[in-house]
Amino acid sequence: MNCTETQRLLHAYIDVELDMMDTLEVEQHLQKCPTCLAIYNNDQALRTAVKTGSLYFQAPEKLRKRIRSSIPKANKAALLAQAVSWRGLSVAAVLLFVMLFAAWGITRFWPAYIAGISLPQEVLAAHVRSLMASHLVDVPSSDQHTVKPWFDGKLDFSPSVVDLASQGFPLLGGRLDYLDNRPVAAVVYRHQKHIINLFIWPATQDEGSETNTTTLQGYHLIHWKESGMTYWAISDLNLNELQTFVQLVQSSSGGLPH
Amino acid sequence: MEKHDQRLRFEQLILPHLDAAYNLAYWLIHNDQDAQDMVQEAYLRAFRFFQGFRGGDGRVWLLTIVRNTCYTWLQQRRTDELTIPFEEELHDLECDALNPEVLHLHRIDQQRLKDALGALPVEFREVMILRELEELSYKEISAVAHVPLGTVMSRLARARKWLQRYLADEMNEEKKI
């Protein structure tokens, strides 16, 4: 890769938006070219200054209150409109409705509530278990092409395994685990001295696809869904670094088209 | 009863991103009171159109609405903000290699950095805010700002170069005095 090409891709490299091949080529070029390295260092200095500066404007408390109070109002108005249209109904019908609603509420929210608290706990337990016993990995390897095929025949899906060693998250290996009543893939990475377990299994239809962050007993958990798979990343890393890791995993499966 | 469910979802998925909404509005509009009004309007719109929210990242969805609300406001009041001949200026800059040792992190004054970001044309300012302060991916920025991925990348590259030049010039001025 020459200087023109490197400088064209430099910002995508800084923002961790490049695929593996281009990332490696940019890195190789930076190692031998002081001019490009100086540009890279300037960009990084600027980024650090922007990120660490007090440039983020927090919403004033009174705006928070204003919005909180305007949202339920919109909703109360809607409920009131419904109530008015029910005026013609008999009391019995209303009672029946209330009972049906209660029954619906129980069936609708109860399982979600149970699943909502027990799955993160399950993930946490699996993570802690993997650290306590000497059973962190079933297949110890830093090579994605060794780890990924190892899962073949052991699971009914093929988890994505990416190589993030150059970004500071070397692959340690893979392991079978059991979560949410099914066998799942655990892909293990390391960052400095912290272990990250990335659990992967096929997603069910009714889950949302947003990225959720939870903290349990000092461990951070990030959960997201992508291409039909459910992902849980857990570690005792600080949240920022775990988020960086998650972004790397997400972007290395997507990559930047060019 | 869909309504109750929806309100709950709105509170969980959209309300928590108030700081992100305000920060973006403030950087686009540069004025606390107007930014607050924009955020409130955006929230009301978001609530009204929440049925159309098909999952995904609630923050990205909300920021798209905040951005659109602010742009409508800017178009009505400050048309000059949206028509700055920035392309030319940046083109010159690219031919002109930047002196590689100009930036020293400890010397970047916070107020100057704030001024520099504020002086960027709005299309460039918004990608910087979304990338550096909200840490959105290029894909997410492209959704919020309604521009292709390649444009996100080139705007970020140009904005960063321009900021470095701005800060470096300020430092050189200082030396002369």
Detailed description of the structure:
The complex is a heterodimer of chains A (258) and B (177). Chain A has seven helices and seven strands. Chain A has helices spanning 3-14, 20-32, 34-52, 61-85, 91-132, 144-150, 239-254; strands at 139-140, 171-179, 182-191, 194-202, 212-216, 219-226, 229-235. Chain A is of the alpha+beta class. The longest helix of chain A is centred in the middle third of the chain and has 42 residues, at 91-132. In chain A, α1 (3-14) packs across α2. Chain A has two domains: 3-47, no CATH class; 118-254, Phosphorylase Kinase, domain 1 (2-Layer Sandwich). Helix content of chain A is 52%, strand content 19%. Chain A has a seven-stranded antiparallel β-sheet, sandwiched between helices. With 177 residues, chain B is mostly helical. Chain B has two domains: 2-80, Rna Polymerase Sigma Factor, Chain: A (Orthogonal Bundle), CATH 1.10.1740; 84-176, Winged helix-like DNA-binding domain superfamily/Winged helix DNA-binding domain (Arc Repressor Mutant, subunit A). Helix content of chain B is 73%, strand content 0%. Chain B is built from nine helices and no strands. Chain B has helices spanning 2-13, 18-29, 32-48, 58-77, 86-95, 110-119, 122-133, 138-145, 149-176. In chain B, α2 (18-29) packs parallel to α4. The chains are: A alpha+beta (258), B mainly alpha (177). At the A-B interface, α1, α3, α4, α5 and α7 of A face α1, α2, α3, α6 and α7 of B.
